[in-house]
Each structure stands twice: as structure tokens, then as C-alpha cells.
HECT domain-containing protein (Amphiprion percula), 524 residues
Amino acid sequence: MSFEELELLQAGMGRQTVSLPDDSDHAEVLAETFPKMEDLYGGWLLHKATGGSGRRKLTVIPPEAEGYSVKTLRAQSGGGKATFYIVPLQEILDTSPLPPDSQHFSKMPKKTCYQCNEVMPLQMLAIHIKTCRGKSLSDETDEEVRENSFCFIMMEMTKHTMICPICNKDFPQQEIAVHASVCGESMEDVLRFLEQQVDTTTEFKLCVDREDLPDRGILQWQRKKTASPISALKVVYIGEAGVDTGALKKEFLTDMISGIENRFFEGPGSQGKNPKYSLTDLDNENFRTVGEIIAVSLAQGGPAPAFFKEWCYRFLCTGEVDFNVADAQSLMLLADGVINCGYTSQIKLDNKENIIRAIVLHSTTRLIPMLQQVRKGMELYGLVNQMAIIKVNNHAVLDCPHFSEKGTSRERTERKIINFMQDFCQELEISVEESHSLGVQHVLQWLTGQSHIPILPDEKRHFKITCMFDHDCRERLGDHSICYPVVSSCTRTVTFPVQHLNTYTEFRRIMSEAVRYGGGFHRV
């Protein structure tokens, strides 16, 4: 709002919305709305602005023989949408401010001036505070001085606030240390912190072949000298038309984390894994790149690497070796490894200290350098200081099916297909132990580009899979024997070809083939 508009508002002549009933006297209504019009004895006319923007030329609204009528004003205003300007013919408007307690300001919001404690409309306060010097000491009682001093002290204290870098909330400077001691303890706090460290103004773009991961992905990652992985990751798959709006990145990170587990770590999955001893990967700094990819996966919506042995995870958190978590059962499970470390006495819990000493010595000379490189890479985004690698569930529930009109045959068929999908996923859960069989995580990756439910709080909150139904493929494509479901991973949408899914046997066969062989991004 300009100074001229504020000046008119203070004088009671600012912009107002006026209602004119058909039988009203418009002059009286305007005089009530704008009190200073009562002193205009030299006459006035209404004007309105022509088209355009900024400063525009005003044109006179010609009155009728008997003056302005409500019918004329309604027509000229386009049904009350235009703005009219009242222009005196012979006098200069009095722009002196009305008193703050004027009836004209009764409906306006008011606030108290901190300097003089006067209550006035916001429009007047905006100009008043530029010249107000407050009350003199003679005008204030001792009690008022104490109250105003206390208010001033409280205002000064609230000015000295700091923003917590993890939760982004304001805290008084004297309280930030206490808050910092407990903030970031939850998974959501840490993931939110990592997400905020991503530089979304620049891109870290990779062009990779999906058939040669993770090695090709790591090589391309290391060759990106002109960009930093702290930027937003964008992925292009060679030979595929897909444009990365989020799904390609997540599929790449899912494949990379899975490939890193198999390529760089070893051990039974249920007991966690140690890094493989590889001087070649150590010299090529591949383990450092592994750490960077883990950090990017956690910060940008990929899966968490839930495969570390506990001592490895603790080392990544602290940089120190701690084997005090061992129990009798775990020592026996690691018997072969203990012997390989050079320990030749009897393996039992009573000899735990000697066993630990042998393991520590062996690990220090063989595996610690690999973990040190991984930890160095995980310093990206400050992850090492905010370590919270969380195991996630790979299960998902199909949501938001778009059914046809309730009670129709189409709606019944669509519900049958949703039941087929539920049965299919439950069957995969039972048969997951069979070698080379499909799992729920494969279906989820086919649907969304990632084999896990998102771990970033905002993504997890809005995670849904939308089911659509195509009833007209034969009318559209002619006579044909098979159609496969069509997936849009970026929008997490799957469209089922209804006419080819009449029985659960057909559904299982078509879905299995689609998941196994339809993983590319070939649609734009």
C-alpha cells in the first residue's frame, strides 16, 4: 500500500465497499461512509479508471438529468466489480487524519503502539510509529515504567533466538543447548535433517546401464568431477526413454544398495554382514563411494542399508571398535571366523575376552580400513554425526483403486482383480524362501521404482499406489491374445487389462511375466 493510500485511509477516505439498495439515496449512503463528504459544498462527480495497469486515466461517469441513480451506478460498475473515485469539483480534500476513536474506524483491526500505548487502527499505526517518540517520563506512573520496562526486556529476550539445524524450529538462545541434547533422537528427525542438506538447486546426473550395476554405477559416480553428490540425484538409463522425476532415481538407489550388499559385503544375511577384504576396491576408493551412495540413498528417498553386522554399524557411528555385544550363541555361530582370526583355544563364553582380543587384532589389520573408507563417504550430508540407519519393511498395500460406478458389472470385476492382487502378494510372501522366486519387494519395485516403503517422513506419509482398470483394450487394439498391466512408477499408478484377467491363474501368469521382464522405463 502506497503512502498516498495510507494518508487517505487515515483521513477516512480510503477504499470502501458500499452497498446501495435500489430505493436508497446514494448521496446519503456515501456521506455516511465518508464523513468528510459532508463538507463538500462545491459538488463532486464519480470517475472510473480505463483499462490497463499502473497509473491510469480517470474518465467521468456522466450523471443523468436527476443525478446518479442506483441503476446507473450498477450498470457502470459491471455489477459491482469496478472501483469508483469521488472527485470534488471546486474544493481540495481535507486529508488530515481522523481521531483514532472515530466511528469510521470502529470495524478496523486495532493494535497498541509500544512507545506511547495508544490504541489505533493498523492503517494509522503504520505511519504513527515512524514519528512516535513515546510518553514523557512525567506522563507515566512508577507502575507503568516498571511494566513497560518488563515488556521491553521480554521483547529483547525473544529477539535472541536460534534455529535448530535438525528440526528447523526457533528456540531462545538460552534454551537451544538443552534442546540440542535431545533433538535428532528419532528416526524422523535424522531423516528430515539429511533431506534438508540436499542441494536442490544443482543436479548430480548419471547415465548408466541397468545391466551392469553396481560396478558401472560406482565408476560413473566417481567420474563426475564437475558435480557433487550433495546435489539432487538424476538418473538416465541407457536405451530407455524414461525421464527422471523421482522414480528412476529411487530404482537406481534400490539396485545400487542391493548390489553393494552382494558385491562389497559377505556373511549370512540374518546375522549381518562384514565388508569384504579387497585391496583393489580399497585402493580405488570404492568403499568411500559406497559410503556416499548410502548417504544419498537415505537423504533422497532410497532404501536403508539394513545389512551391517552390529560391530560394523557401531564402528561407522563412533569410529571405534566395540565387540562387547557378543554373547555365547553369537560366539558359536562365528566359530569359523574366530579360528581364522588366529584363536586356537576352546570357544566358550568364559574365554570371551581372549576371543575378542583375537578378533580385534584380526579386524584391525584386515577390515577396519574398508570401514574407515565407508565412514568417510558417509560424512556426506553430515550422516556420520546423525547416524540412524533404520531397517524398513518391504511390504506395501495397494491403495486408492478407482472403481467404476457402484453396483455395476464393471465394479464387480474390478474388485475381483484387486482380490487377485492381494492373493498374489500373499502367495509371494509364502514362497519367498524358494530360490530365484519373486518376492513382494520385486512387485513393489516394479510398481514404484523402489523395493521398500519410503523412509523419508513426508514421502512415507503420502505413499499410495493407485489402481486403474482398462476395460476397452480389444475395442481399441483389435483382436489380440494378451495384454500386460501398464505401470507409471513416477505417479505410482498401475492399470490392469481387465479383459485378460478373468481367472486367478491368468492373473498370476501375466503378473509374474510383467514383474520379471517389464522393469524398464520405456514410456514417457
The two ends are 47 Å apart (CA to CA). The chain has 21 helices and 14 strands. Residues 317 and 385 are 7 Å apart (CA to CA).
